[in-house]
Write a structure and sequence with these properties.
The protein has 515 residues and is an alpha/beta fold. Helix content is 45%, strand content 11%.
Length: 515
């Protein structure tokens, strides 16, 4: 099988396993159970591959095999179950295979929790607290004992014969891509909650290409969700010479991001769990905000109660341009991102709702200050219904801190809202749509009905509104109507109608319905 066929086999099997939970608990919840068990399956199968490799290499020398395994990316510990007298009653490796062998046990939920805790403790540097937010013995989510045990048994059986060993799947990208695809599918069925943890792949790719990460770059997402945008940005580098940093407020989503990074082979990614606006975690030895070469995010739109009450006393001075409204945290996220972009060359890319571009009041004053600082590089309008959980169109804002302060540079406006693949449920940017956006942005030339390279004076004249229609004229004049031709067509139709009526009357007379 080729890589795509391998991906399809794994994906279809896992997606079928979701039947165990469909109609029982919400997709936003059962994704955690499915993806966690897939992760455990992956760890066990890769471990099995490595054991076989080292047994062959070291010809059964157990000490050398154990030493080699201890230097691997992760450690698979052994579990010891003890009775009330602290006597070992059972001992087995912390693998999916061990769970599968014990799938009919009445305490299977508790056993899974024990296994996850052992994996965490043995790999604290990479997996500390990752499984603390998920409980396979949870009655509220999985039902009472009998129902819960049946569901977990079915789940273990559904994934039991999946082969995720490296000699079978070929390379890490296959597993990582399947994991990412599953996250997308869960987002598609999770309703409004989907926006909390996933940015559609086409949007992630567009934003990543616009900020153009380079070898050696440090890339940060302060609202990283499941990490899809960060991973996509890293892939744009074209090598492994980059570092990823992310912060996420939701505990289960943070855990999902950690597993996602691991499955994509980005073990060294720094993913922290906290509220970015209230408690930014990436600070240096001087308690100043760390800065990054690239900062990207798809933060929650118009976040209410984002922390306005403490913004005036912000020790990092992120809100010197003004404090955003209490019920709209969009510019608070942008202010944070600009503060953490490296001076003299940092690039920022952020997904926003269109209101961010033109709302007045305090937001208008902040927007004016940002434009006057000459850091805004471009604004791109996207099609509607691209994002899971909302049909509203969004926009991308690109900032560049290499632009000379005090200059009045041009800003690139692109209206990409009309070019996309239409779908009843979810619209999608095609490869050619993404390519056109990126190419137009880089060429920085106006394109009729699509793009405008606007001057500072033009933006100032528009009172610093960034509303795209003010710069990109997409008006299509109505075609002129040929009145004589239309009248001639009407005359012809009326004559045909009269002939048809005469024929109909003749038929009705023959049938005796008319005298």
């Amino acid at each position: 099988m080729n890589d795509q066929q391998k991906r399809d086999v794994i994906f279809n099997r896992v997606w079928q396993a979701c039947d165990t939970f469909r109609g029982v608990i919400d997709p936003a919840q059962y994704k955690d159970y499915i993806l966690t068990m897939l992760f455990v399956k992956y760890l066990g199968d890769i471990h099995k591959s490595k054991v076989g490799e080292y047994e062959k290499k070291y010809k059964g020398n157990q000490k050398r095999i154990d030493r080699a395994l201890s230097r691997e990316r992760f450690v698979i510990p052994r579990i010891e179950l003890r009775d009330e007298d602290d006597t070992i009653t059972e001992e087995f490796p912390a693998t999916y295979e061990s769970l599968y062998e014990r799938r009919a046990r009445p305490d299977i939920g508790e056993l899974i929790n024990i296994l996850l805790a052992h994996i965490e403790d043995a790999n604290k540097g990479k997996l500390h607290n990752v499984f603390r937010n998920i409980d396979f013995n949870n009655e509220a989510n999985l039902g009472q004992a009998r129902q819960r045990n049946t569901r977990l048994k079915h789940l273990l059986e559904d994934l039991g014969d999946l082969d995720l060993r490296l000699e079978s799947v070929g390379h890490m990208d296959v597993i990582g891509d399947v994991y990412e695809y599953l996250i997308e599918k869960f987002a598609a069925t999770a309703g409004k909650k989907a926006g909390e943890f996933y940015t559609p792949a086409a949007v992630s790719e567009t934003l990543a290409r616009l900020v153009a990460p380079q070898p050696g770059d440090r890339i940060c997402d302060p609202a990283c969700g499941s990490g899809s945008l960060l991973i996509r940005a890293g892939k744009q580098v074209g090598s492994d010479d980059y570092a990823l940093y992310g912060q996420e407020m939701n505990g289960s989503t943070w855990a999902l991001c950690k597993m996602n990074m691991f499955l994509h082979g980005v073990d060294a990614a720094h993913i922290l769990w906290e509220d970015t606006l209230r408690h930014p975690q990436f600070v240096d030895e001087n308690d100043a905000l760390m800065t990054f070469d690239v900062v990207i995010a798809n933060p929650p739109f118009s976040l209410d109660k984002w922390g306005q009450e403490i913004a005036a006393d912000d020790v990092y001075n992120r809100f010197y341009r003004g404090i955003p409204p209490k019920s709209k945290g969009d510019w608070a996220f942008i202010a944070h991102m600009l503060a953490t972009a490296a001076q003299g060359g940092g690039r920022v890319g952020v997904v926003v709702s269109h209101g961010v571009l033109f709302r007045g009041g305090q937001e208008g004053r902040i927007r004016e200050a940002v434009v006057r600082e000459n850091v805004l590089d471009g604004v791109i309008g996207l099609p509607p219904n691209l994002f899971f959980g909302t049909a509203i169109p969004a926009a991308l804002m690109i900032f560049d801190k290499s632009r000379r302060a005090g200059r009045q540079s041009n800003v690139m406006f692109i209206d990409a809202s009309r070019k996309f693949e239409r779908s009843t449920n979810q619209n999608r940017l095609r490869s050619r749509d993404i390519e056109r956006i990126v190419t137009t942005f880089r060429k920085r030339r106006s394109v009729a009905k699509y793009a405008c390279l606007a001057s500072y004076a033009e933006i100032e004249e528009n009172d610093f509104s960034l509303n795209i229609p003010r710069y990109v004229d997409t008006y299509e004049p109505e075609p002129q109507i040929d009145i004589p031709a239309v009248q001639a067509e009407i005359d012809t139709l009326e004559k045909e109608l009269a002939r048809t009526r005469r024929k109909m009357q003749g038929y009705l007379k023959e049938l005796g319905f008319l005298k």
